[in-house]
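Lay summary. Proteins are chains of building blocks that fold into shapes, and those shapes determine what they do. In this project we predict the shape from the chain. Here is one chain we studied, written as its sequence of building blocks.
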Amino acid sequence: MNKTDNPQENQDAALKQILAAGSGPRFKVRWLWLAAALLVVAAAGFFFYRSGEKKAGPSFKTEPVSVGSLVVKVSATGNLQPTNQVEVGSELSGIIEQVLVDVNDQVTRGQVLARLDISKLQDAVAKSRANLIATEAKVLEARATVAEARSTLNRFREVAKLSGGKVPSKNEMDIAEATLKRAEAGEASARASVTQARANLQSDETDLGKATIRSPIDGVVLSREVDPGQTVAASFQAPVLFLLAEDLGKMELQVDVDEADVGQVKEGQTAIFTVDAWPGRQFSAVITRVSYGSQEKDGVISYLTILTVDNEDLSLRPGMTGTAEITTLTRENALLVPNAALRFSPPEAQAAQKTSSRGVMGALIPRRPQQPRKASTPGAGVMPRVWVLRNGQPVAVDVNTGATNGRVTEITGGAVEAGMEVITETLGGSS
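And here is the predicted shape, written in a compact code that computers can read:
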């Protein structure tokens, strides 16, 4: 074949020569072998690609099952209060004449705290005493009248006896008897007036005593709400003048326990609490009462719980906010797993990866998607379970669970032993 100077013409001629040579039977056989080899290479590449996907599955984080102490605590917040707190007021209205104590003063039972102006009360006492004297004089007068009427009646009876009943007349006898009865009634009325006057005098003297306001307990003054010259009005209710605490060496921490936790809280349980005034310091307390009555605040139901606190050094003060950790359960030598292990479930992609075992053609045929598995979280209505690795694959192990402190849970039954590694989370695929 002669070549020309035109490159395009040379290429066309070469192509025609190749096509003419490939029209023979040997060339067709070669193309069939080449196509078969390409198909085998493609199938092998797809197979190794799927195998590589399987080997690049997710990796997992595990933690060992341990044996240790399980301590379950309930948190609650409240305020410190004295064990006995007394509001001291005044039953009488009047003007404060003296205030003899101030805040933080130590007081004893019966000590005078304040006095009202007693001038009007003294006048009332003097008036009642004079009235009593007057009524007692009336009693003496009534007794004399009775004695006179009785003497007259006795004389009439003696005359009637001597005269054989002729004198005095029957009418005169009746009048004398009625006069005696009337005199005796007057004496009884005078005695009643004396009793009433004595009661009035006693009431006025009591009011005079109440004008002096005294401490009902031994304790300390927490607050003073009155000053000399201030008018006290006790028309409807007794105004509070002083607030006293009996003994600050013993105090109460009053906390609100949430309704979700109140079933675990009982009398006699111990607790520790902290206050902002003493950062880093912990105080001990013991539960003495868990109220049955509920209380609602901002739509949250809680139950008032009282804890007794020793405060010998007086470092705690009424009104301080305390955050308590109440120990509701302590269990030694418990088999414990992390709560994350109970919440774990394998990724859904693992179910799809198992389809690679069906081969190349099986992988190309679509299957109905599998339903995702539910996590085995305790309380979710399914059997609690944990997952362990066997031959690199997660395997479920059913267990029975007990108490939990929010971080670890006690295992009370199941094929789980101390030291066994349980899966807590998926870390992702490896390249």
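What the prediction tells us: DSSP finds seven helices and 19 strands in the chain.
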